[in-house]
Specification:
It is built from 9 helices and 10 strands. The protein has 260 residues and is α/β, with parallel strands linked by helices.
């Protein structure tokens, strides 16, 4: 069974159709990169899957469970529960400057536990202690255990992005999403994030990455889709899409990039 299935996803903003019928499947443990020109619908697709935007048509499933079906009304609480399936790493980090690295990673799980166990303080304390242990373990996985008491202003761009990754992992999402994870970094720091994503891939973490960096996509992906004008123009392995594309639009896009 696929971990993620998208069926006929459409999204418009006013009269502008941004997504025009997206069908996609992703297997557990796969790393998928989404490439394409600006305005092709990459980030909108990511935001629709994460329920930050609501698609106009279509449905999608996670582990066979319908997470979204256009036209069905759900409560804010149900929406929050559904969003726990997804972890999203933003390109501009979005860390809280007043909190330490450890507190940034613990914040969302603590708020979730506080709400779930608001009438049981003893249980909540036990859960908080476990959250702290797990947050330290996650920071160790991304190579930042020695920075748990540091503040964001004391970190490099690559370290901030690794904290963002740790924070997304803290809620144990089914799928981890990245929106241009290296765009805010100096080129020499891109390898830092590549190393972390490769490690997560080796641990069979399912990931979807929107990126404009073709070399990065080739290095980390099991599967690549090229989006053009709100549709999936081509999909396949990195070798198939990047080295032997069948679509003229894909070839033109790659040629343009290589000429820059």
């Amino acid at each position: 069974m696929s971990i993620l299935e998208l069926k006929n996803i459409h999204k418009s903003f006013g009269k502008t159709k941004v997504l025009k019928g997206i069908d996609l499947t992703l297997e557990k443990g796969q790393v998928l990169s989404i490439i394409g020109s600006s305005g092709s619908g990459k980030t909108t697709l990511l935001r629709c899957i994460n329920l930050l935007e609501i698609a106009d048509e279509g449905e999608f499933l996670v582990n066979g469970e319908v997470i979204f079906r256009a036209g069905e009304k759900i409560s804010a609480k149900e929406m929050q529960q559904k969003q726990l399936h997804f972890g999203l790493v933003f390109q501009d980090f979005n860390l809280f400057p007043q909190y330490t690295v450890l507190d940034n990673v613990m914040l969302a799980p603590k708020l979730h536990a506080k709400e779930e166990y608001k009438k049981d303080r003893k249980k909540r304390k036990e859960i908080f202690d476990k959250i702290r242990e797990e947050a330290i373990e996650i920071l160790d996985r991304v190579g930042l255990k020695d920075k748990i008491d540091s503040y964001p202003c004391e970190l490099s761009g690559g370290q901030k992005q690794r904290v963002s990754i740790a924070r997304a992992l803290a809620l144990k999402p089914s799928i981890l999403f990245f929106d241009e994870p290296t765009s805010a970094l100096d080129p020499e720091l891109t390898g830092e994030i590549l190393k972390v994503i490769r490690k997560l891939a080796s641990e069979k973490t399912t990931m979807v990455i929107v990126t404009h960096e073709i070399d990065f996509a080739e290095a980390v992906s099991d599967k690549i889709i090229f989006m053009d004008d709100g549709l999936i123009e081509e999909e396949g392995t990195p070798e198939e899409v990047l080295k032997s594309p069948k679509s003229e639009r894909t070839r033109a896009f790659l040629t343009k990039l290589s000429d820059q």
